[in-house]
Amino acid sequence: MEKLSNPQTTIAVLQKYQIRFQKRFGQNFLIDPHVLEKIIAGAGISNEDMVLEIGPGIGTMTQYLAEAAGKVVAVEIDRNLLPVLGDTLAGYDNVRVISGDIMKLDLLQLVREENGGRPIKVAANLPYYITTPIIMKLFEESVPLDNVTVMVQKEVAARMKAGPGSKDYGALSLAVQYYAEPYIVANVPRNCFIPRPNVDSAVIRLTRLPHPPVDPQDEALMFAIIRASFGQRRKTLVNSVSAGTDISREDLAWALEAAGLPAAVRGEALSLEQFALLTRQVLKLRT
Ligand code: SAM
After folding, report:
1. Which residue, 30, 114, 231, 262, is the most exposed by fewest CB within 10 angstroms?
2. Residue 125: CB within 6 Å of ligand 1?
3. Cα 250 from Cα 56, distance rounded (Å)
4. Whole-prediction pTM value?
């Protein structure tokens, strides 16, 4: 089968199978070979790797992954695309397509069955309506993985990579950087897709850290504090966190002072390290 990564072949396949784009599934198919080459190189895929692809669509990226990796498992929610994938991937014997919703799949079991529990790589041109839930599922469920190399909305890539003081810095930056080191592989203009999305995109690689870079002693509490402090960005941390959690203003004021932080500090000024330190101080008041 000839490569799908150009407009003519993609349109011909869509017409042959009378495929209508499903907006609700975030379908924007890649038509640019250079972008695909950058994703494969950025993910560092070799023939020793098992790659999990989320949302193969008509199989455009899957063809590239199958050529570079030892094995590809691709999970697609849209059943209408299964006959297309059967055709476009017929020439590869190292691809398994699973029909289903990635959010409902037991990924730990999948990695055990398909890769003996060894770390996998994840590659995708993600459906943008569930970018964050998919990435957090991969990290929070402790799926054994080396890296996640994915196409996301450009602004979302900027938020994942941002540090304190940046306008893009927020709860997503801290959640991602607790688990992984982000690196922007490429910026991708909207004309690299059919249909053309109305946002620009970027490929980001998230390399899984062997251990979280900080120890808050209570992960759930730290992320509750983080979420609350960015929930009302323009307020001081004491105001926003006391409104958004069960921690009192007095306890927050004490914990900030014990952490050596200014009483009127805002969440957007704090690093992950400082959120972890603040969390440990709050915990001291609970024992
Ligand atoms: N990989 C293809 C490409 O690059 O041309 C298609 C990418 S398209 C942006 C996203 C794909 O994810 C679509 O094929 C869509 O049907 C699929 N998808 C959407 N939600 C999904 C879910 N919850 N589980 C699995 N696949 C999903």
Report:
1. 262
2. yes
3. 52
4. 0.96
